[in-house]
């Protein structure tokens, strides 16, 4: 997270440094060029004064030698030309060779012969290779008899500009480095409580209500937020614990009176007349007492299973190996057929309370409630979680976001599409199953446990019925796949 914060701060700092550094760099380059121009202008001004005197007196030998010496010392060709452009004094060869590469030379010379002084060059960029041409008229106004022209190579000047720019860039990097050096630990310190809150929220979403955030680190505002978060989680955990304790205690406390009541009712059986109205009332009372005992057992089981809130990786092969033989025995006893199609090597996140218990409940529903002939158990790894309810999804390699879809289908009665959502509610039972033993808690508990592991329990159409009157019942358990290397 602090990397993203730096990704915002550093570009802003770079823009700020650039906003200050670019104009300064331009100013430095222009000043270097201006200094070079002023230096050359001073030289041609002096040579123009000497040339005016020498040409007037006809003594040009000394000036010619001085111009040659200047070229020899500085490598800058300087020449005195007449109004036709012919070189009168100076190194003519070097001047003409340099002049051939300067397209701006005729314009500058024409202006000098007209009595105008050269303007400073605007080409200061280090990557530009043009020379600096400076011309000074010899004579005054209408008495201009020639001009002194220098053609200066600016490679050294541009090298100095690059050196100055490099120094400025180095100075500009210092605050950026200091910003990163300071912002990295500071942002880590500021955002560490946020990361811990994020991790705690993730753990809580998986059902771990015991996790708490560190309220001793970070800025004051985040410490207060962590304290409020911990207070909220204390209240939530206490409420959940009280709820579970109430369900468990109530079920336990009602068990003994209910058992006593059942014994008392059953003790009345010898005193009933055969075929009398009392026998029917007695049978109803015993059935209701048995249903209440099953309800209490289911409530206690629900409280125990929901108290286990940790999901962990498990190999589906291991779970199936401990369950398939028992399922085959149960289906064989009921005169049904069990078909299992589970590819090897699937690894998934097991819900709290165990995946085997959930599959046992789904198989039990198929045996007790559907009146099915065939029960089919399939599993597929679905890339990206798309289409998890389809048994023909291709098996692919482990990847982030994949899910393992375990489907239990039968060709029995099934339930209507309008009843599928209600079937996942607690204590709901289909009107067709009112006379079948059960509590209406099984699917609801399974859905809660699967959801606690980040998965989903869905109800869909099952296998086609043998008589062609519709489809049976299907329950799809979609759980996050766990890559081998991650586990």
UniProtKB/TrEMBL annotation:
Main location: membrane
Domain HAMP: 188-241
Keyword Kinase appears in the UniProt entry: yes
TM spans (from-to): 165-191
Catalytic activity: ATP + protein L-histidine = ADP + protein N-phospho-L-histidine
Annotated ranges, domain Histidine kinase: 249-483
Keywords: Kinase, Membrane, Phosphoprotein, Transferase, Transmembrane, Transmembrane helix, Two-component regulatory system
Pfam families cross-referenced by the UniProt entry: HAMP, HATPase_c, HisKA
Superkingdom of origin organism: Bacteria
GO molecular function: phosphorelay sensor kinase activity
Cell compartment(s), UniProt: Cell membrane
InterPro entries: HAMP_dom, HATPase_C_sf, HATPase_dom, His_kinase_dom, HisK_dim/P_dom, HisK_dim/P_sf, Sig_transdc_His_kin-like_C, TCS_sensor_his_kinase
GO cellular component entries: plasma membrane
EC nos: 2.7.13.3
Name the UniProt record assigns to this protein: histidine kinase
The species this protein was found in: Planotetraspora thailandica
């Amino acid at each position: 997270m602090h990397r993203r914060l730096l990704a915002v701060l550093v570009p802003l700092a770079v823009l700020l440094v650039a906003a200050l550094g670019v104009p300064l760099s331009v100013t430095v380059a222009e000043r270097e060029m201006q200094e070079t121009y002023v230096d050359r202008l001073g030289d041609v001004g002096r040579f123009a004064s000497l040339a005016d005197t020498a040409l007037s007196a006809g003594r040009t030998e000394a000036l010619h030698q001085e111009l040659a010496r200047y070229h020899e010392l500085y490598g800058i060709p300087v020449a005195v030309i007449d109004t036709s452009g012919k070189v009168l004094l100076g190194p003519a060869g070097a001047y003409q060779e340099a002049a051939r590469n300067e397209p701006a030379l005729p314009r500058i010379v024409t202006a000098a012969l007209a009595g105008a002084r050269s303007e400073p060059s605007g080409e200061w960029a280090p990557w530009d290779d043009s020379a600096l041409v400076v011309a000074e008229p010899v004579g005054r106004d209408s008495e201009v008899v020639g001009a002194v022209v220098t053609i200066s190579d600016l490679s050294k000047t541009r090298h100095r500009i690059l050196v100055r720019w490099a120094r400025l860039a180095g100075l500009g990097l210092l605050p950026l480095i200091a910003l990163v050096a300071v912002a990295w630990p500071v942002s880590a310190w500021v955002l560490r409580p946020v990361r811990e809150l994020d991790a705690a929220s993730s753990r809580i979403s998986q059902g771990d209500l015991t996790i708490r955030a560190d309220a001793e680190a970070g800025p004051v505002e985040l410490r207060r937020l962590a304290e409020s978060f911990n207070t909220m989680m204390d209240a939530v955990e206490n409420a959940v614990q009280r709820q579970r304790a109430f369900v468990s205690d109530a079920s336990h406390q009602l068990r003994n009176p209910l058992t006593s009541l059942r014994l008392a009712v059953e003790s009345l059986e010898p005193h009933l007349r055969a075929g009398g109205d009392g026998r029917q009332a007695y049978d109803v009372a015993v059935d209701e007492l048995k249903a209440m005992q099953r309800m209490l057992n289911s409530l206690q089981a629900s409280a125990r299973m929901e108290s286990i809130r940790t999901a962990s990786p498990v190999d589906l092969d291991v779970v199936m190996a401990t369950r398939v033989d028992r399922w085959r025995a149960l289906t064989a006893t009921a005169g049904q057929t069990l078909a299992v199609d589970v590819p090897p090597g699937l690894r998934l996140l097991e819900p709290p309370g165990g995946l085997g218990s959930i599959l046992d409940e789904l198989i039990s529903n198929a045996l007790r409630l559907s009146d099915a002939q065939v029960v089919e158990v399939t599993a597929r790894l679905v890339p990206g979680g798309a289409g998890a309810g389809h048994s023909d999804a291709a098996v692919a390699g482990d990847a982030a976001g994949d899910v393992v879809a375990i489907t239990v289908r039968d060709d029995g009665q099934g339930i209507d599409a309008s009843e599928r959502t209600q079937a996942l509610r607690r204590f709901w039972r289909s009107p067709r199953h009112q006379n079948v033993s059960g509590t209406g808690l099984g699917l609801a508990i399974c859905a809660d446990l699967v959801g606690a592991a980040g998965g989903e329990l869905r109800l869909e159409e099952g296998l086609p019925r043998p008589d062609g009157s519709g489809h049976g019942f299907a329950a799809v358990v979609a759980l996050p796949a766990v890559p081998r290397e991650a586990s």
